[in-house]
Amino acid sequence: MGATVVVREAASADIETAVALWTASHVARRNGRPLPEAHITLAQQRMAAPEALLLLAHGSVDDGSGNGSGNGSHGGGAGGADGTSGAGGAGASSLIGTILGIQGLDQDGVGAPVPGLLHISLLSVAPDRWGQHVGRLLVEAVLTRARAGSFREAQLWTHADNLRANRLYKAMGFRRSGRVRVDDWGELLVHYRRSLTD
């Protein structure tokens, strides 16, 4: 059996499920340490913002019949965060990833819009799908949509100790800018940028 992954734009009805997946992925990466409710609320607000481009990855198992429904089992991925593909397919699929693209703002998100700058955040993948290139598909999808718009450059922040994410971003042409900051948990964040015009 082969896995099928579909990336699509989210609808407002998807926000709750997307936040649940993002939360479960974050908790797993932090070895079970729960997230403060304020972090979860902020993620939900960002995903629901009218100007946000929230993309979702859905996974199913192809049993060779062409209907994409696999063996009929489509467990919740992470923390019961499952949903349907919403793409009109014959079979249901579970939500396995999220990514958010928004207009980049000056002064780390509190200043004026920076023309041509896409800010990427809230990338998450269901822990049982880590290492299966779901994150790469999501980053590729958001960059493709950004290039089709007016964006010329992309940026993001990630934890310095998140080796999986750092490897992904470097492999996809992002380079560290040299900027760092400490988050509200005392953990080091590193900043990446890349051009979208080459």
UniProtKB/TrEMBL annotation:
Pfam family, one: Acetyltransf_1
Top-level EC class as recorded in UniProt: transferase
Keywords recorded for this protein, A-Z: Acyltransferase, Transferase
Stretch forming the signal peptide: none
Gene Ontology MF term list: acyltransferase activity
Domain of life of the organism encoding this protein: Bacteria
CDD domains documented for this protein: NAT_SF
Domain N-acetyltransferase stretches: 5-198
Record field: compositional bias (Gly residues): 65-87
Enzyme Commission number(s) of this protein: 2.3.1.-
Annotated segments matching region Disordered: 64-87
PANTHER family: AMINOALKYLPHOSPHONATE N-ACETYLTRANSFERASE-RELATED-RELATED
Name by which UniProt lists this protein: GNAT family N-acetyltransferase
Organism in which the protein naturally occurs: Streptacidiphilus alkalitolerans
Taxonomic placement: Bacteria, Bacillati, Actinomycetota, Actinomycetes, Kitasatosporales
